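Structure ticket #2291
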Amino acid sequence: PRHPPPFAAMSHGFARAEEEEMAPIARDFCAFLVRASDLQSELDSFLNEKCEEFKGGSLDGEQKLEWTALHKEYVALVEKRLEEFLHEREATAEELCRSLEASLGGSVWSLPLLRSLEYQPFFAQMIARAETRMLRAEAE
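Resolution: structure written out below.
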């Protein structure tokens, strides 16, 4: 099965917010994510290329320094695109966060793309991808 994109579920969180008035930057961010197929492709490529490094990993086990470095690389990819979005709209990250939280009625960290910037969700996603790839290889 194909892995859901890191921000695949973001539109679900916005469904309730669309019934109410969304701040323009929150609406723009939602549209940006929907149209950002190149970002999705870039992130998918990164995750697929690097997931083998995490094979056999465990959140409870020892964490390799290489995993932290790969997480930082992933975060840099996402942050670059978020900074481009903010620069185009002459907005700050704080303004975007406040707007999203008001529109969602909760924390921006509930959004899959933003949650994946934290190490543990990223790590869990990489382990799952590595295991899926291994199972596919065994099935062939």
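Closing remark: The helical segments are 10-19, 24-35, 37-50, 65-88, 93-104, 112-115, 119-139.
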